[in-house]
Specification:
Structural class: alpha+beta
Radius of gyration: 16 Å
Number of strands: 12
Number of helices: 3
Number of domains: 1
CATH topology: Protein Transport Mog1p, Chain A
Helix content: 10-25%
Strand content: 35-45%
CATH architecture: 3-Layer(aba) Sandwich
Largest sheet: 9 strands, mixed
CATH superfamily: Mog1/PsbP, alpha/beta/alpha sandwich
C-alpha cells in the first residue's frame, strides 16, 4: 500500500530540512484556507472503532489508534545531525496495511510551516502527474498550531488520498503522514480524524 509515497515523503522532509534557508511563497493558486478537520468532507466520527493510546516518552508524543491496527516502531533515521528525522511509529490497518499513519520527528532548521507545505506540494506535483491539491491551511495539532495539505494522486497500487500535517514545538518538527486508498476514503477518514485529534506533544 503506497510504500513508494511513504518513502518519498521521508525524502521530501529530508530535502526540506537541508535546503530551506528562506521563506518560500506558496504556489497553490489561492487555495489557502483555515480549517479544523483534515477530512475533505464532513464525517460522523461517533461510531469509529475501539481505540487505545500509544505514548513514547523518548520523543514526547501520544496518540490514540484503533486497537486492531498494527503498530510498529521502526525508529529509522534519515540524514545526520542537524538534519536527522526519526520515523517514530507507524500505524497500519490489516490485512493490507491500508491506510497508514506515520509519526515523524525532526530537528527544525530555518523556515516556517508554510514553507514546508510549499516545498512538499511542489515536489509531489513533480512526482505524481495526476497530483490534485484538495485542501490546504491551518490546523491545530494537539495544543499547537499546525499546517496541513491534503491531495489525491495515484501510483502502482491505484488512486489514493494523502495528508501531511506539521507542527513545531521547542525547535522540533512533528509530522503526521497519512495515506488512504481511494476506495476506503468514506470508511477510514473518520478514524484518521480521531487519531489526528488525539495527537499530543507531552514533553
Amino acid at each position: 500500500m503506497n510504500n513508494n509515497f511513504i518513502i518519498v515523503s521521508l525524502v521530501v522532509i529530508l530535502t526540506v530540512c537541508i535546503t530551506l534557508s528562506a521563506n518560500i511563497g506558496l504556489n497553490v493558486e489561492g487555495q489557502k484556507e483555515n480549517f479544523n478537520n483534515i477530512t475533505t468532507n464532513k464525517s460522523d466520527i461517533s461510531n469509529v472503532e475501539n481505540f487505545e493510546t500509544y505514548e513514547n516518552s523518548k520523543y514526547g508524543i501520544k496518540i490514540d489508534y484503533p486497537s486492531y491496527w498494527l503498530k510498529t516502531e521502526p525508529g529509522s533515521t534519515i540524514g545526520i545531525e542537524p538534519y536527522k528525522q526519526i520515523n517514530v511509529v507507524t500505524f497500519s490497518s490489516p490485512p493490507n496495511n491500508d491506510p497508514v499513519l506515520m509519526v515523524i520527528v525532526a530537528n527544525k532548521t530555518e523556515g516556517t510551516l508554510v514553507d514546508f507545505a510549499s516545498v512538499g506540494i511542489n515536489q509531489h506535483r513533480m512526482i505524481y502527474p495526476d497530483f490534485n491539491l484538495l485542501k490546504l491551511g491551518n490546523v491545530n495539532l494537539g495544543d499547537n498550531p499546525g499546517y496541513s495539505f491534503i491531495f489525491s494522486a495515484s501510483d502502482a497500487y491505484g488512486k489514493f488520498n494523502a495528508a501531511q500535517i506539521w507542527t513545531i514545538k521547542d525547535n522540533k518538527l512533528y509530522l503526521l503522514v497519512i495515506t488512504v486508498s481511494e476506495h476506503l476514503n468514506s470508511l477510514t477518514w473518520p478514524t484518521i480524524q480521531k487519531m489526528v485529534d488525539s495527537f499530543e506533544i507531552v514533553n
